[in-house]
Design goal:
Elements: E1 5-10, H1 13-21, E2 30-33, E3 42-45, H2 47-50, H3 60-66, E4 71-73, H4 77-92, E5 97-102, E6 105-109, H5 111-114, H6 117-135, E7 139-144, H7 147-156, E8 162-165, H8 168-175, H9 188-195, H10 202-207, H11 209-216, H12 218-227, E9 245-256, H13 259-279, E10 282-283, E11 286-293, E12 298-304, H14 311-324, E13 330-338, E14 341-342, H15 350-354, H16 357-376, H17 390-402
Parallel strand pairs: 2-4, 7-8
Antiparallel strand pairs: 1-6, 1-7, 2-3, 5-6, 9-13, 10-14, 11-12, 11-13
Length: about 400
């Protein structure tokens, strides 16, 4: 037996935390995300709301059409992060390796602690009990021989469920007659492509392996392996230094056609990106700009740079790329860095060692921030730290949009 993996998935996490903290919301359709009059999407919905067809990532206006009687709330990310830390503390007690997928979801390698599937069952049920008793929340737990099987198992009895898949044979028996969409990584577009070629079920994938590989290439090879229950990926703890890029973006409540305002917002996004990069000790050698226009067409631009070590570097490059794109109303703007490396891999320039480059960049950023303060009446003195919180950033951006 090579692996014993537990997949834990909290039930409607954001909504469940809000209901726990405000029992008056219990049994009501609760939608966490944007408000109905705003632009945005559903972050999560309570199971009462899901009965109306509301689901995560749905446009908030579509959700409102389906469920106008729902309770709509903005997410409280600081609260959810705090609860997530409590969850992770519990999970780490049982796992030799833990791979967090989100605030509320993780794979746990419990082979050393559990010894066998009977031991894994005891751990899985104990995790459920502790989360219920200590945090007053529910989760669904899957125990299996692989990551894909564990995730499939945790979905099998939601909410507040428990399920086991002990072998590839059990996985195949469970999945064989199900839609191709039931397989991990098979999204809507991939499913459509398969269905257009007469492949509707997992059994069809098994019986048409060459066709699937011809249609989908490497992804097809992976999908055919999954159809036979083959998945030997280990539980790999996430390391910030493994990130391929770091970015931040904002969506406007009304389209913006003032490109000077967009540059001002890029300044704030550059500060956010740079702060996150510093926290994990990463540096970039490229800067990205992302725009989504009013007609939902998205464009992205990238630019290699000598250094993206400061917010000033990121802002300069993003602003230059903004000057070169087509100027028409914008719905979303984002900035980021890529080609990341750690502190030890960073090559210092002559100016880094002997010059005053860093000081000049700091002074330039301070001047840019003073300009924003004067232009919009903002007070960054002592308050800049708050801008890194998602809700404060969005409120600040909307304030700037209304006063531009």
């Amino acid at each position: 037996m090579n692996q014993i993996i537990i997949h834990v998935d909290m039930d409607a996490f954001f909504a469940a935390v809000e209901i726990r903290d405000n029992p008056a919301l219990s049994c009501r359709p609760l939608i966490i995300g944007s408000l109905p009059h705003e632009r945005g999407v559903v972050a999560t919905a309570s199971y009462e709301a899901r009965k109306f067809g509301v689901h995560s990532a749905m446009n908030i206006k579509d959700a409102y059409r389906l469920c106008p009687q729902g309770v709509y709330m903005h997410p409280d990310m600081d609260k959810y992060k705090a609860v997530s830390m409590q969850l992770h503390a519990i999970w780490h007690e049982y796992a030799s390796a833990l791979q967090a997928i989100a605030f509320d979801e993780a794979y746990l390698d419990v082979r050393e602690r559990a010894k066998n599937f009977d031991g894994a069952r005891r751990i899985g049920l104990e995790i459920k009990r502790r989360i219920r008793e200590e945090l007053k929340l529910t989760c669904s737990v899957g125990v299996a021989y692989s990551k894909t099987a564990a995730k499939t198992a945790s979905e099998e009895k939601k909410p507040d469920g428990y399920f086991e898949i002990r072998s590839p044979e059990e996985f195949v028996r469970l999945m064989r007659e199900r839609s191709v969409r039931a397989l991990y990584t098979v999204g809507e577009k991939t499913a459509q492509k398969l269905q257009q070629n007469g492949i509707y079920t997992v059994r069809d994938i098994q019986e048409n392996q060459e066709t699937v590989i011809r249609l989908l290439g490497k992804q097809g090879q992976w999908i055919t392996q999954l159809a036979f229950g083959i998945d030997d990926r280990p539980v790999t703890p996430y390391r910030p230094e493994d990130a391929k890029s770091i970015g931040r973006e904002v969506t406007f409540q009304k389209d913006v056609d003032d490109y000077e305002l967009l540059k001002d917002i890029l300044l704030l996004l550059a500060l956010c990106v740079n702060r996150r990069a510093k926290k994990v000790g990463l540096h970039g050698k490229g800067v990205t700009l992302k725009l989504t226009y009013a007609d939902m067409k998205s464009v992205s631009r990238s630019q290699a740079v000598l250094s993206a070590d400061t917010a000033t570097d990121i802002y300069r490059a993003a602003a230059e790329m903004l000057d070169r794109v087509e100027h028409r109303p914008v719905r979303l703007v984002g900035a980021g860095i890529y080609n990341l490396s750690g502190e030890a891999d960073r090559q210092l320039s002559f100016d880094d060692v002997f010059g005053d480059t860093v000081l000049r960049k700091q002074e330039e950023m301070e001047g840019l921030l003073r300009g924003l303060q004067q232009k919009y009446g903002l007070d960054f003195a002592g308050n800049l730290e708050k801008i890194y919180h998602s809700d404060i950033l969005h409120k600040t951006v909307e304030y700037m949009r209304r006063h531009s």
